[in-house]
Amino acid sequence: MRRALLFLSMASIVACNRGRQPDAYGTFEANEVVVSAQTTGQLLSFTPTEGVRLARGAVVGLIDTAQLALQRKQLVAQVDATKANVVQATQQIGVLEIQRAIALRAYERTRRLFNEKAATAQQLDQAERDYRVLVAQIAAAQAQRESAIKETSSGQARVAQVNETLSRSQVINPQAGTVLATFVRAGEVVQPGTPLYRIADLDSITLRAYVSETQLQAIRLGSTVQVHVDSGNGNLITLPGTVQWISSKAEFTPTPVQTRDERADLVYAIKVVVLNKNGALKIGMPADLDLPPVPPAAHS
After folding, report:
1. Are 107 and 127 in contact (CB under 8 A)?
2. pLDDT tens across 218-270, in order?
3. Rg (CA), the chain
4. Please, what is the Cα angle at 128 between 125 and 133, to 5 degrees?
5. Which residue in 34, 9, 14, 12 sits closest to 282, CA to CA?
6. Residue 55 and which of 11, 111, 215, 274 are 20 to 30 A apart at CA?
7. Which of 292, 270, 254 is nearest to 213 (CA)?
8. Tell me, what DSSP letter sits at residue 253?
9. Distance CA 243, CA 274 (A)
């Protein structure tokens, strides 16, 4: 059905301008972007409206983040608690280090006295035991501190993850352009990947047309062509266009598209960028174009 309408539209252009022989025909298209939700929740606000122009970076929606905010608060409290454990373990290690130094001196003194027969074996064992117990306690406190440090890092990573999700609760428009369609309304519950709206920059619009192999000699990337659009009253609007892309492979002629040489079975797609300052050009609108003359060297 869509191809049939396109063919009829092109036929009307040809009928109104039988004196002209355009080099190629095509339709206008734009680089459309579908903006989707990036988190789960109820859509608290949503401002995009079809036909309205949005600036790049504009905040156009907000997804409910109450549960995430509570989760973040809990995680932050846990991180603070583990940081306190790190401080406490560090202080405990400091105290134990002092006690170990004292115990080591007592142990060495008792060993000298034992060697001089001035201390008993029991006293020596007690001094050694006191020293070794403190060494073990310090090792345990150090392990506890390391565990608390790792737990703190893990908690901070979880907080950062929640912060990232919270930042995605704002729907930020990725590019300047006109809203073509909206798919949701405020109050609906969305999931990551749910399409919210479709937008395209219509300040410049692209004409996809098809040319035959012989016509390729007349165009290069950056070439200027003349694009013609039916104004609706039987007259043509002529606008300059710039060739932005040329297909590297041929394809069979699309059903609703004609070329100057209708006997050509294989054609090449091209894209022509046309400025659309007054917004007269629309997506899906048919148009034709005239190519520049073929350079003399190409005929030889």
Report:
1. yes
2. 899 999 999 999 877 778 889 999 999 999 888 876 655 555 555 456 889 99
3. 38
4. 120
5. 9
6. 274
7. 270
8. P
9. 9
Residue entry with tokens 């440090």: 149
pLDDT of residue 216 exceeding 60, the answer is yes
Tens digit of each residue's pLDDT (9 = 90 or more) over 100-131: 999 999 999 999 999 999 989 999 999 999 99
- Positive or negative, the CA dihedral 232, 237, 242, 243 is positive
CB 266, CB 250: distance < 8 Å: yes
Q: Name the residue type at position 123.
A: Q
Between β-strands 286-290 and 266-275, what pairing exists: parallel, antiparallel or unpaired? unpaired
For residue 63, report the phi and psi dihedrals to the nearest 5 degrees: -100, 135
Closest CA to 165 of 84, 260, 66: 66
Distance CA 92, CA 217 (A): 84
Residue 49, token pair as written in the block: 């409206």
Position of tokens 């905010």?
69
Find all residues with CB under 8 Å of 56, minimum gap 6, and list them: 173, 174, 175, 176
Percentage of the chain lying above the pLDDT 70 cut: 87
Residue given tokens 């428009």 in the structure block: 173
Task: Give CA–CA dist 149/143, Å, rounded.
Answer: 10
Give the contacts of 48 (CB within 8 A, at least 6 positions apart).
54, 60, 61, 173, 179, 182, 196, 197, 199
The pLDDT, as a whole number, for residue 297 is 57
Residue 218 one-letter amino acid: A
Residue with tokens 């098809």: 210
Asked whether the predicted pLDDT for residue 167 surpasses 70, the reply is: yes
- Residue in the structure block whose two tokens are 């506890």: 144
Burial environment of residue 277 by CB neighbours within 10 A (0 to 12, 13 to 18, 19 or more): exposed
